[in-house]
Each structure stands twice: as C-alpha cells, then as structure tokens.
Design goal:
10 strands; 294 residues; 8 helices; elongated; alpha+beta
Length: 294
C-alpha cells in the first residue's frame, strides 16, 4: 500500500489542473505578462488584481491600466473551444465538439466594472476602455465584438487608442486615488496559498513516485547513461554492447604488425613505446580487422 501513496497527490494535482481556478490563473498570468513586457512603463501604469469600492460593496478588476490615453479596464478569462454569442446576449455558447455549454457574457461584467471605475474616479466614460481577453478559445463563430480580444490582439488594440484624453495632472490624480481607494483583498493570500499547495502536491508526488519506482528509475537512468556512453565512445564496447575491460581497451590502442615472411611481430603503444607480448597474442592483435595488418 505504501507504494500507492503517490496516487493521492497525483489525483489532487490533476483535479487542480482541470479546475476553473487554474484556468483563471492561466488567463490572468498570460495577460499580466503581456502588459508587463509590451507596454512602455513611462506611458502606462499597470495594476493587477485590483479591489475597489463600488456602491455598498467592492468590485474586483483583473487588470487596470492608467495612461494619458485613458483607463483600460481589462478582464481576462480562460475558455476552451469555439465561442458564439452577441454583444448584448446575456449568455453565450461554448462549443466543444458536438456539445456546447452556456457561459455568462463576460462583456456585461466588464461593463459593470468600467462603470464602477468611472463613478469612483469621477471621470467621463469616454476615458474608459473596457476590454475582455479570452485565452484558450479556438475562435468566435459569430461576429466578434470589438471589445472582445484574443491575447495576441490586446497590445495592438491598446496602441490603437493612443489619443490623449487627459493631461498629466489628471492622470496623476487618478493614480493617487486608485492607490488610496484600493482595498487589500484576500486574492494575494489565496494566490500564495495556492502556490504553496501546488508545490507541496508536486513534492509529495515526486517523493511518492521515487519511493514506488526508485529502483526502476535508477535502472532507467543507468541505461540512458550507458546508451549515451556507447554513442559517444563506441570503442569502449564490444559489438554486442558489453563493455570492454581496461586490458581490452589498451590492446585496441596498440598498433601491431606481423610479417609472414620472417614470422616476427611487433606492437607499439600510441606514444611510440614498444610493447613485449607473447608472439601468439601479438599476431592475433595484428590480424584483427581493426588493427594494421601486414
């Protein structure tokens, strides 16, 4: 039974990898990296996992980007399959093969987040750019709404909005207000908790696999190492794959010549030194296919 301990963490790890939480992490991480590496830091300020007050509660925004070109309210979502639906439809269809499931229209939630940002910061709606980035989707079967983007089109879309709609003072005021209004949420603690859980499951899984299959893995490692050695140094092995002894390797390095006319045989080491061998041994080395014949 102890050899089966690795199955439990494997099942838990597979369950996590197939969970909505993991898929959401994939989407947010993809967009986070795009924003961090693709936008000029002197022109854009990026916030991730932002909780802001909204009415009597709070609203969570995946990514909030502030610049003189406006405020970009970005939602990132992972979907797998083909998507169909209209901009104003409440629910969309997510197609996988011949089946489909229904998902909430992410543009609606994103629009509510954009309204909350505009109301909180007291800015005109024309300064707000609401965007939804779908990660993992194969395509959109109906006309794709303008604000719905694939990750590859996010940065080009943002750069297409490079028309100044606020001055530097107003942008600084908005940044200060976001910093003052931002509510510390459990997202970061949950994220760290999930990361620690992932690492713990992975370590337990690896330890369990080594405990259960350590001997087989060691044998496989030795087999791979020996195969690599055979590829790099074929002269150290016999044709059947068995390793040669040190004596046999030394004998292979000798240059031996046998004269049928005189019956004399001589073997010389690579350095030029003459080697004394029994006449029968010297002759056998000289007559091998890999040794100089006379």
């Amino acid at each position: 039974m102890a050899h089966l301990l690795w199955i439990a963490p494997l099942v838990l790890l597979i369950a996590y990898l197939s969970s909505p939480r993991f898929r959401g992490d994939i989407a947010q991480t993809r967009v986070r990296r795009l924003l961090a590496t693709g936008l000029e830091k002197s022109r854009y300020t990026v916030f991730n996992d932002v909780n802001l007050p909204s009415g009597g509660g709070t609203t969570h925004i995946d990514h909030l980007v502030v610049s003189r070109f406006g405020i970009f309210v970005i939602a990132s979502q992972y979907v797998r399959g083909w998507v169909s639906g209209g901009e104003f439809q409440e629910r969309w269809k997510l197609h996988r093969g011949n089946r489909f499931t229904r998902i909430d229209n992410p543009l609606h939630q994103n629009a509510l987040q954009a309204d909350a940002v505009a109301n909180l910061l007291k800015v005109s709606p024309r300064t707000i750019h609401s965007i939804v980035v779908l990660v993992g989707q194969k395509g959109f079967r109906s006309a794709m709404p303008e604000r719905l983007l694939s990750p590859e089109k996010l940065l080009p879309y943002m750069r297409s909005k490079a028309r100044q709609v606020m001055n530097g003072e107003e942008a600084d005021r908005i940044l200060a207000q976001i910093g003052a209004s931002r509510i510390p949420g459990p997202g970061g603690r949950r994220m760290n908790g999930w990361r620690r859980l992932q690492m713990a499951l992975l370590l337990v899984l690896l330890a369990g696999i080594w405990f259960a299959f350590g001997d087989q893995l060691a044998s496989l490692r030795d087999s791979v190492a020996e195969h690599g050695k055979k590829e790099s140094s074929p002269g150290l092995f016999h044709p059947d794959g068995t390793p040669k002894t040190e004596r046999q390797i030394w004998e292979d390095s000798l240059a031996c010549a046998y004269s049928k006319d005189t019956g004399r045989c001589t073997c010389i080491e690579p350095g030029g030194s003459k080697v004394d061998l029994q006449p029968e041994k010297c002759r056998s080395l000289a007559e091998r296919g890999s040794i100089l014949k006379q």
